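Course assignment 3, question 2. Fill in each field.
Student: A.L.
Task: Predict the tertiary structure for the chain below.
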Amino acid sequence: MRLYGYAEPDQMIGTIDTPIDGQMATFEVRADMIVDCGDEKLVEIEISEDGILDGEDVKLTEEGREAIVQALTDWYDFELIADPERVRNLQARMIASEWHGPGTLLAGLSTGGIIAEGLDDEIQSLIENAETDEDRGRLRSLLAYVRETGPRERVPGWSELSW
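Answer field:
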């Protein structure tokens, strides 16, 4: 299960106990920062679907999920973002803004959410010329976003997506 939201810590890794059928089960939790927004950080939290209860494997239930979100809220000032699509759009805008130049198709994505024909090739070229694995990874995630989303015109409100 993946959650997106704002939190204070750079990274939370470990386990969390949550009620399953009236007993406490343990689930692995990992959080990675997506964007540093100053006082808070946009994070992606991954919670294992399989946990341990009295030495036996158990599945995460809706009750357990709600308890985990509440615990993250209480312990880490976690603020859940209910719309993962907003997070994907924010990530795409952020990466595009780091890589676009004047007059490029990537500039249209950065400033207006526009996915024009040829953007795929422009990003592929950037991947081939990127200097680090981290840069290539970020650009590959942007390429996947562009391919999944497909061509589109300007997106209303896109410029308000900020970090």
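Instructor remarks: The beta strands are 2-7, 11-20, 23-36, 41-47, 50-53, 56-59, 79-81. The chain has a mean pLDDT of 84.
Grade: pending
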